[in-house]
Amino acid sequence: MPATSSSSASSARDTARQRIAVAAITLPLLAVTACGYGSKAEDEGDKTSPVAQGKAIEGLSEVRIGYFANVTHGTALVGLGDGGLIQKELGGTKVKPQVFNAGPAEIEALNSGAIDIGWIGPSPSINGYTKSGGKSLRIISGSASGGVSLVVNPKKIKSLNDLEGKTIAAPQLGNTQDVALLNYLAEKGYKVDATSGKGDVNIARTDNKVTPIAFKNGDIDGAWVPEPTASKLVADGGKVLLDERELWDDGKFVITNIIVRQEFLEKHPKVVEAVLRGSVNTNAWINENPDEAKKAINSVLDKETGKPLPANVLDPAFKNVEFLDDPLASTLRDEARHAVKAGLLKDPLLDGIYDLGPLNKVLSAAGKPSVDDAGLGAK
């Protein structure tokens, strides 16, 4: 498809991008959260750290764990809080939580040794593992599937055939949703420069906290985003044009993994096992107690963002996410292929990215079936 081109259209897009940039600068919360490489995560310190009780595992006083304040990271939100099952399994080893806004910043923190374990999306995991030559991390569990949608302004976009010339937001260059959007557009025949985001359809890399503002201002025509941002846009008059689950076999694809520094895994395997045991128990509790789980997630989001989600956002956001232990490894391979097609990765390294031995040990002890690494496990 030929790209739409005129000086007035280009000027309008530039103005919209400038307004998005201004919004990103002026939004107060962004001053303390991580948005990309070189930015810092919010160190929650003692403000939200759960209470550690009992004996420290392997003599380790604390374990530093990263995650996002997203519904797709509900396992971490529920399991790491006061009374959470992850902290319960860790006993006297205290969880030190750190909140991130996007995967690249969390990978940077992991590589620098600032965190030990993290909940994160597949694309940053692949990118971080590849850039380190397979030395930075291991994926040790799944956590969630689904929870991503393309939401649009129905006055500007009526169908999937109306995307040409429009501006669609994604959270960050190279993040999981950005890769998915680039791949979808390419499969539909649109040409987009992966780095600049310019082309037949324009991609505006926009922090999830800024996206609802940009949507209300008309600076973007839609967004390919995770929950709860997708449901926030719907509450503001947006329409779900595509649920990403529709693009995957059985409607399942990995949206959140658990990763660990390889050095930490080698030195503290019992701590890692305790975190995984807590994660498995937390997922089971969430699935058995959905109403209570929603309240627990919202309580943590209130602490992290200063504002709880209203029911018309929380309910659909929670419903759109499936919490599970299976990392859905075959879908990670597909997402790596999508990143290559988009031009964001040249030769992704996947061999050895998983170590599911500790997880399968936990699952076996709980009477649950083991999970598969799709041939990508560490030898």
Structural class by helix and strand composition: alpha/beta
Number of strands: 12
- What is CATH's topology name of the largest domain? D-Maltodextrin-Binding Protein, domain 2
Strand content: 15-25%
Terminal residue distance: 45 Å
Q: Given this structure, which CATH class of the largest domain is correct?
A: Alpha Beta
* Pattern of helices and strands: HEEHHEHEHEEEHEHEHEEHHHHEHH
Cα-atom radius of gyration: 20 Å
The biggest beta sheet is recorded as: 7 strands, mixed
Family: Belongs to the bacterial solute-binding protein SsuA/TauA family.
Pfam family, one: NMT1_2
InterPro entries: ABC_SsuA_sub-bd, NrtA/CpmA_ABC-bd_dom
Main location: membrane
What features would you describe in this structure?
With 379 residues, the chain is an alpha/beta fold. It has 2 domains: 7-29 and 148-250, 3-Layer(aba) Sandwich (D-Maltodextrin-Binding Protein, domain 2), CATH 3.40.190; 42-145 and 253-365, D-Maltodextrin-Binding Protein, domain 2, CATH 3.40.190. 40% of the residues lie in helices and 17% in strands. Residues 1-48 have low confidence and may be disordered.
Please tag this protein with its features:
7-stranded mixed β-sheet; globular; 2 domains; D-Maltodextrin-Binding Protein, domain 2; 379 residues; disordered N terminus
Describe the structure concisely:
The protein is an alpha/beta fold and 379 residues long.
Present the secondary structure layout:
Elements: H1 7-26, E1 42-43, E2 62-68, H2 74-79, H3 85-90, E3 94-100, H4 103-111, E4 117-120, H5 122-131, E5 137-146, E6 148-152, E7 167-170, H6 176-187, E8 202-205, H7 211-217, E9 222-226, H8 229-235, E10 239-243, E11 254-261, H9 262-267, H10 269-288, H11 290-305, H12 311-319, E12 321-323, H13 329-342, H14 357-365
Parallel strand pairs: 2-3, 2-4, 7-8, 7-9
Antiparallel strand pairs: 1-3, 4-11, 5-11, 5-12, 6-9, 6-10
Helix pairs in contact: 4-5, 6-13, 8-12, 10-11, 10-14
